[in-house]
Design goal:
Oligomer: single chain
Structural class: alpha/beta
Mean pLDDT: 90
Number of strands: 8
Shape: globular
Radius of gyration: 20 Å
Distance between the termini: 64 Å
Helix content: 40-55%
Low-confidence stretches: none
Strand order of the largest sheet: 5-4-3-6-7-8
Number of helices: 10
Largest sheet: 6 strands, parallel
Order of helices and strands: HEHEEHEHEHEHEHEHHH
């Protein structure tokens, strides 16, 4: 299992080099575009070009009901792959579980690392309160059964699960990976952001939200309010303004 992840760490360097090469090529030819769109402000900073604009993904749902945040359950949703960092989440949960063994962490998703992750769960004596749940088609309803959302991704393109969880009123604890969490989470207001790979810091933040029910519920309330900036009406208006501006530029160039 450890060899498997060391291999992925090395492969991650190759992916990073590919990303750098892609950025170089795009920066070189960006002058050919009228506008260049990215999903997050964090991503925009990498380009340093006035043509780069941010239009985020929109929220898929905003349920009438919200999570009560009283169940002793924590959720994470994502593919069981290196990117999602569930190997680190197991290490985090080992710390949390020592203090709160009656809390349960459930991970929804499938992937090539299921066997290795399950072996690590069992090796660390966590199979009683850390479960791999597989794929869930009706994830919207599932969010409502939990009290905290955790994300341990090494990198993301945006992080749709974060805005879904916030829409259901869940407070967030996440690594501040590139890109997404820093655009979505309001630190100390609707969630916590930790440095990528800081196992202890994330365990400590989860423990705070477990221990302090009032804080947990305040974060959840703010999460549901703050996520409204990703409503479809707002995002669609941004797209409309983009196309309107492109049309005006086209008319000026013809004239």
């Amino acid at each position: 299992f450890e060899k498997n992840f060391r291999f992925r760490e090395k492969r991650g360097i190759v992916y990073k080099l590919k990303e750098i090469l892609f950025l170089y090529k795009e920066k070189k030819f960006i002058k050919e575009y009228d506008e260049f769109l990215v999903l997050t402000e964090e991503d925009k900073k990498q380009w340093n070009n006035s043509k780069v604009k941010v239009i985020s993904n929109s929220l898929n749902f905003y349920p009438i009901n919200t999570a009560k945040l009283e169940n002793k359950k924590i959720i994470s949703v994502g593919r069981l792959e290196y990117q999602k960092g569930y190997d680190m989440l197991i290490d985090i949960w080992k710390i949390v579980s020592k203090k709160y063994p009656n809390w349960i962490l459930e991970i929804y998703g499938e992937g090539s690392l299921r066997k290795q992750l399950q072996e690590k769960i069992e090796k660390n004596g966590l199979k009683h309160n850390l479960k791999l749940m597989g794929i869930e088609k009706n994830i919207e309803e599932k969010y409502l059964d939990y009290s905290i959302y955790v994300m341990t991704s090494r990198f993301e393109g945006f992080g749709m699960v974060l805005i879904e969880a916030k829409a259901c009123g869940l407070p967030i604890v996440s690594f501040g990976c590139p890109c997404g969490p820093k655009d979505i989470i309001v630190p100390e207001e609707d969630g916590f952001i930790c440095e990528v790979g800081d196992i202890k810091a994330m365990a400590d933040k989860i423990i705070i939200l477990i221990k302090e029910e009032e804080l947990r519920k305040n974060f959840g309330k703010k999460a549901r309010e703050n996520v409204l900036k990703f409503r479809k009406e707002i995002i669609m208006q941004q797209w409309k303004e983009l196309f309107d501006n492109l049309s005006l530029k086209g008319e000026k160039s013809v004239n």
